[in-house]
Amino acid sequence: MTDTLTRQVRFLLEADKLKEVVRLNQLSGGSRRETTAEHCWHVILQTLTLADHAGDGTDISHVVRLLAVHDLVEIDAGDHWVTNDNRAEIKVREQAAAERVFSLLPPDQALDFRNLWLEFEACETPEARFANAMDALHPMVLVFASGLDDPTHEPMSAADLRRTKEARLAPFPGLWDYARDLLDQAVRDGRLLP
After folding, report:
1. Domain regions of the chain by residue span
2. Contacts from 92-101 at CB under 8 Å and sequence distance 24+?
């Protein structure tokens, strides 16, 4: 086996660990919490399904590439709520994870994947903005569109979630309107505090 293939397989085996990273939100059926690998697959499928909400000229295949690598850092850093109190610490942990995980690849691929991750994090390109919107919407769809009463959101109110999600979803008015409707319905149903 060539060194390139050996490194690529080592990376793929490391990425398989995403199947063991348990996220904070439940599956839409409520039977258990989802894994990061499940989230990555489902948010990519969601993106392909909701692609008509992306701005004109947005390269959906590039959005999919961003989403395929964006959570690889959770192998080391885990899934977490990002708050003003922990934002800096999480950023340091995720950057260290990115360096370690992507360094498993051959140098050119490592640079490509790391750049995809950095692009997603910077949220400046049309593709990164849509990828971030998809990532922000996904747990809301699992929890609130399913009608699930998920204790993950107990410490947060609808107002907290609006503040957390608005920057990433508001550039896509149809998606932002839908997200706000989900939160309003969750409040009306007593599943979320106002």
Report:
1. 3-188
2. 97/72, 97/73, 98/72, 98/73, 100/76, 101/11, 101/14, 101/15, 101/72, 101/73, 101/75, 101/76
